[in-house]
Amino acid sequence: MTTGIYLSLGSNLGNREAHLTQALQKLQHQDIVGVRISSFYETEPVDVTDQPDFLNLACQVKTGLAPLALLGACQQVESEMQRLRKEDKGPRNIDIDIILYDQQIIDHPQLKVPHPHWSSRNFVLIPLQEIAPHLRDPISGHSLEDLLALCPDHARVNRLTTTEHFASSDLNR
Domain spans of the chain? Predict the structure, then answer.
C-alpha cells in the first residue's frame, strides 16, 4: 500500500462539515484509508470569488490503487454525493483533488500530479503543512515552507477545528 498520497477536500454548499465527513467515509469504502487528516479550514474562494466560503482539509491516505484508479475512486465519491459541475471553480458540495502521489510526476490527459495549482493555493498548502511539514514539491524540490513564502494567493485561510475525532477507526462507523 502506498502511503505518500495527499488529497485536498473542499465544500462550500450546504452542511460543509457533513459533506467533508461523508466524503472521508465514502473514500474508505473505496479502499482509501485516512492516515492523517488536517483541521478544518474556512477559506475565501479563489478565482470565482462571488460564492460562499469553503471548508477545506488535507489528508494523507494509503491505498493500493494506482493513480488513475485513485482518480476514478475520488470521482466516484463525488458522483455518489451528487456533485454537479455547473461552473468551473464554482460552488460545489464536494471537491476531492489528488495533490501528490508518492512524489511521482504524472502527466496524463486525465490526471496531472502534482496537482497543477497546488503550490499557488494557500487553502491547499496550509492544511498540508499541518499534517506533513516535511513535504517537498517533486518538480521544484521546494519545501512547503518555501512554497508558502512564494505563494501568490493571499486569500483568507482560518483554522477552525481539529479533525482528531475523525481517526480512521471512527470513519468506519
Answer: 2-171
The full DSSP string for 10-74 is EE-SSSHHHHHHHHHHHHHHTT-EEEEE--EEEE--SSS-SSPPEEEEEEEEEES--HHHHHHHH
Structure confidence by residue, pLDDT tens digits, 1-12: 888 999 999 999
What is this structure's pTM? Answer: 0.91
CB within 8 Å of 54: residues ≥ 6 apart: 10, 11, 12, 16, 42, 43, 44, 45, 123
Among all residues, which ones are annotated catalytic? 83, 92, 95, 97
Q: Which residues contact 26 (CB under 8 A, 6 or more apart)?
A: 77, 80, 81
Cell 500530479, residue located: 113
pLDDT per position as a tens digit, 109-166: 999 999 999 999 999 999 999 999 999 999 999 999 999 999 999 999 999 976 554 4
Task: State the CATH class of domain 2-171.
Answer: alpha beta
**pLDDT at residue 87 in the model:** 76
Q: Is 58 within 8 Å of 6 (Cβ atoms)? A: yes
**Distance, CA of 38 to CA of 162 (rounded, Å):** 7
C-alpha cell of residue 113: 500530479
